[in-house]
Amino acid sequence: MQLTDKQKQYWKKNLHVTGVLLAIWFIVTFVFSYFARELNAISFLGFPLGFYFGAQGALIVYVLIIWFYAHYMNKLDVEYDVHEKGD
């Protein structure tokens, strides 16, 4: 099956946003954890910043990543007319 230019553009945008969101996920998951000792020297709302990022901040970022991806892909689906049609 040969892909049309419109399908290739859709896939390119999908891969781009997925790559950016995966980079954010990697930074939040691994980079902040790697620097947790250094971040613990800073206090935020009475908690060490490393703990805050690990216990609360990362979860908030994960939920925001999921929300953004779903919102972006719904808009992209409508733009490229591949969305699910309602009744």
From TrEMBL:
**Chain segments annotated as transmembrane:** 15-37, 49-70
What protein am I looking at? Answer: Membrane protein
Q: Which residues form a coiled coil?
A: none
Q: Please state every residue range assigned to the domain named Sodium symporter small subunit.
A: 7-83
Q: Which controlled-vocabulary keywords does the entry list?
A: Membrane, Transmembrane, Transmembrane helix
Cited InterPro entries:
Na_symporter_ssu
Q: Which Pfam families match?
A: DUF4212
